[in-house]
Design goal:
mainly alpha; 2 domains
Length: 99
Amino acid sequence: MSEARNERKELNSTDLLALVCFLAKVHKQVDQLRYKVYSWKPEDGDLREYLVGQWPVIQGTKNQFDLEKIGEMDFDHTRIRKAVEAILSANAQADSREE
């Protein structure tokens, strides 16, 4: 197995979960913004200024560049559904233990 693949396997699952949750939150904000744009009217002001004020921002240039690099990485699209189900299931189990 390649060294890079070994390094990926050693990533902390809690840290990966935090990144996935963060990216999901940004996706949710972008999706909500799409619907806000649908309701925008000329009397609301300049659309460009409206979008700039509403657009989710990733803080820090290094963070932005790092996320761009991650976004350019190849991944197996067929594994996304399984990962989502595992995350939601683990969260539901954690919630039930807290009750």
